[in-house]
């Protein structure tokens, strides 16, 4: 009887093969898939904003974060099951580069294209949500602005560490989803780690490409918004350290760790 999951060694081998395919696919395909990932993560972020609006006052901060993380996991489910290129998940391509199956230049090229595509997709989705007027529902705009403001106020080192912890979990979610061989298994693999990182308050660069621009767009409708909510604080104060942290978390604690265990020396464990 066939297993309904892959072993860790088999999962590493599958991720390595996927890395070779992703790195060799046409640029146009990578661009479209990265745009889709930006949309999908933004769907989860938007839903988390709506669900958490006013929830903490009634149910407590912990429950509000749990609910937000639970619905935010939709984003990675869409990425994994429907197919898309997510910058944070593509940290796992490092395994393929470490084995010499793709060049480091190809890896960096993929990261640059996917990061830009994720950004454009997230930003466009933020604009769509702003134009939808759904933020006019009670407390939703205030929640969106509060989320964005809190993120732009993080010290550089704090944002960096939260980025590391976040993508450690995100890449583990991708690892487990790759191991799962059916859709319910992939959904469950995405749910646990993603719920955990959101509930914990960790920082995800692609999610922040939706959260913070949405807050910035809405702030124009609400005079008196905290002055720390600016585009420069978004790019320099949050996106830069969080992106660096995401790279460290995914590359060191997942990609490198499992390369060391299963692929070191150029041989793949059976």
TrEMBL record:
GO CC entries:
plasma membrane
Keywords annotated in UniProt: Membrane, Transmembrane, Transmembrane helix, Transport
Identify the InterPro entries for this entry.
Aquaporin-like (IPR023271), For/NO2_transpt (IPR000292), For/NO2_transpt_CS (IPR024002)
Q: Where does it localize? A: Membrane
Indicate how the chain sits in the lipid bilayer.
Multi-pass membrane protein
Residue ranges of the TM segments: 30-51, 63-87, 108-130, 159-180, 231-261
One of the entry's Gene Ontology molecular-function terms is:
formate transmembrane transporter activity
Keyword Membrane part of the UniProt annotation? yes
- List, alphabetically, the PROSITE patterns matched: FORMATE_NITRITE_TP_1, FORMATE_NITRITE_TP_2
Please indicate which superkingdom the organism of origin belongs to. Bacteria
Check the record and name the PANTHER family matching this protein.
FORMATE TRANSPORTER-RELATED, FORMATE_NITRATE FAMILY TRANSPORTER (EUROFUNG)
Record's family? Belongs to the FNT transporter (TC 1.A.16) family.
| NCBIfam families per record | fnt
Report what the protein is called.
Formate/nitrite transporter family protein
């Amino acid at each position: 009887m066939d297993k309904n999951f892959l072993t860790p060694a088999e999962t590493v081998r599958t991720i390595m093969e996927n890395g070779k395919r992703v790195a060799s696919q046409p640029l146009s395909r990578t661009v479209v898939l990265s745009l889709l990932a930006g949309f999908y993560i933004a769907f989860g972020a938007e839903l988390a904003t709506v669900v958490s609006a006013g929830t903490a006052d009634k149910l407590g901060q912990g429950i509000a974060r749990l609910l937000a993380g639970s619905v935010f996991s939709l984003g990675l489910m869409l990425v994994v099951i429907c197919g898309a290129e997510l910058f944070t998940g593509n940290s796992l391509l490092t395994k393929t580069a470490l084995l010499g199956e793709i060049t480091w230049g190809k890896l960096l090229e993929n990261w640059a294209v996917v990061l830009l595509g994720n950004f454009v997709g997230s930003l466009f989705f933020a604009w769509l949500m702003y134009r939808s007027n759904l933020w006019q529902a009670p407390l939703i705009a205030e929640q969106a602005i509060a989320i964005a403001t809190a993120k732009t106020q993080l010290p550089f080192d704090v944002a960096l560490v939260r980025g590391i912890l976040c993508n450690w979990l995100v890449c583990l979610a991708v690892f487990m989803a790759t191991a799962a061989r059916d859709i319910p298994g992939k959904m469950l693999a995405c749910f646990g780690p993603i719920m955990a990182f959101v509930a914990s308050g960790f920082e995800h660069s692609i999610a922040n490409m939706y959260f913070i621009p949405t807050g910035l767009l809405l702030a124009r409708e609400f005079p008196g918004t905290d002055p720390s909510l600016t585009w420069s604080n978004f790019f320099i104060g949050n996106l830069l350290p969080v992106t660096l942290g995401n790279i460290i978390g995914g590359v060191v604690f997942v990609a490198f760790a499992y390369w060391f265990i299963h692929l070191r020396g150029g041989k793949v464990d059976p």
